[in-house]
Amino acid sequence: MSDVSDTFGLHISTFHFINVFEIDEEGIEYSTVIGSSSGKMKQQVVDFNCNGPFLFLVLPEKHNFVLLLGFCR
């Protein structure tokens, strides 16, 4: 945090990282929302290109189980 402020002991108590993706015949649209406990959120769209097989999981925000598990070749 030294690049953000000169205040000693400054820390982030909560950090949010949310990924959203949409897969269709034309490809994948992927966005990320990043924020902290200050309430400020930043959203950016990221292109996600895979040139090999991958595994993905969809998990609910507040529960500890898998909603969707997938594999793409």
Automatic annotation (TrEMBL):
UniProt keyword annotations, A-Z: Protease inhibitor, Serine protease inhibitor
Protein name as annotated: Serpin domain-containing protein
GO MF: serine-type endopeptidase inhibitor activity
Superkingdom per UniProt: Eukaryota
Residues in Serpin domain copies: 4-70
InterPro entries: Serpin_dom, Serpin_sf, Serpin_sf_1
Species assigned in the record: Leptotrombidium deliense
Pfam families linked to this entry: Serpin (PF00079)
